[in-house]
């Protein structure tokens, strides 16, 4: 249900407040040959991006998650530019003529509005 997705995304945004680098959670990421594992940063960003384009309240929680996640010092260095590129490309390719386009634009704009004040205040 949307309630479950909403609460889990908000919970994930709270976990983004941990005071240590996310790379610490990926201790065995490089030690397993033959297995391709995705880093914690990439997984969180994939989840957030997938919910920014849905048409329920989970989109709002995903925007909160993005604002807390991409403004972390460790994530800002590695993922902020790619997230901004992705969101601007999604905005550019979306159309006001379709409901899917409007929903995608809404999610991108919510994420950007929540992220930009945090970035500007933290400079």
TrEMBL record:
Query: Where is it found, in Gene Ontology cellular component terms?
Result: lateral plasma membrane
Which GO molecular-function terms appear in the entry? beta-tubulin binding; GTPase activator activity
Q: Which UniProt keywords apply?
A: Signal
Q: Where is the signal peptide?
A: 1-23
One short Pfam name that applies is: ARM_TBCD
Q: Which GO terms describe its biological process?
A: adherens junction assembly; bicellular tight junction assembly; microtubule cytoskeleton organization; post-chaperonin tubulin folding pathway; tubulin complex assembly
Protein name stated in the entry: Tubulin-specific chaperone D C-terminal domain-containing protein
Name the species this protein comes from: Balaenoptera physalus
């Amino acid at each position: 249900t949307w309630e479950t997705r909403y609460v889990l995304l908000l919970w994930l945004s709270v976990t983004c407040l941990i005071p240590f680098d996310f790379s610490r959670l990926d201790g065995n990421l490089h030690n397993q040959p033959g297995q391709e594992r995705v880093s914690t940063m990439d997984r969180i960003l994939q989840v957030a991006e997938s919910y920014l384009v849905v048409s329920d309240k989970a989109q709002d929680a995903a925007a909160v998650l993005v604002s807390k996640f991409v403004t972390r010092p460790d994530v800002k260095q590695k993922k902020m530019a790619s997230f901004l590129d992705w969101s601007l490309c999604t905005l550019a390719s979306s159309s006001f003529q379709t409901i899917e386009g409007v929903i995608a634009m809404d999610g991108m704009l919510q994420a950007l509005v929540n992220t930009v004040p945090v970035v500007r205040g933290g400079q």
